[in-house]
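Example 3.
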Amino acid sequence: MEQYQLDGIFQALADPTRRAVVGRLGRGPASVGELAAPFDMALPSFMKHIRMLEESGLIRTNKTGRVRTCEIDRLRLAAVDSWLAEQRAIWEGRTDRLEQFVTQDKERKK
Amino acid sequence: MEQYQLDGIFQALADPTRRAVVGRLGRGPASVGELAAPFDMALPSFMKHIRMLEESGLIRTNKTGRVRTCEIDRLRLAAVDSWLAEQRAIWEGRTDRLEQFVTQDKERKK
């Protein structure tokens, strides 16, 4: 995953409406109308959120007749997972070294 | 974790410099000078990134004399983990239901 893609994904997730849309799409595809229903928001404003999610690659949309259907791309969300896993690996590496140091220190003092 | 805090955390992570700082701090605390060294960036620009990370709560900073030391707050990063875990739970619930449906359908056809 390129860095600039990760920028767009994190940016897209930095908003409660967009996170709610991602949550809803986790349960299956939905039309823009269904997605917009729970929000007290004008449709053009809501469409901006949909477009931002689409640009980040987190969702794909497809228009059939007058209905635009959205679905999630789990691989993009998995990119956030991978980034977090990297951070955990760094952190755990550090904890391991600290533990090693403390254990060695105890051994020395015996 | 409040929604607005999650907004700030995702916003803070939507930049490669800030993600690199978070990665570096995963290995242990560091001064602003050490953190800035790998980047070809004027210090005031770099400080904007540090302040944004601090405002999101992802890092804490502490000034002693002329040196500002930064350290990571793992709990804030864990908030992203929790949000992703929620999404996975929604998704897996859906997969379970799909699997159930397919299994029941097969049973019916026997």
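The first helix of chain B runs from residue 3 to 13. The mean pLDDT of chain B is 90.
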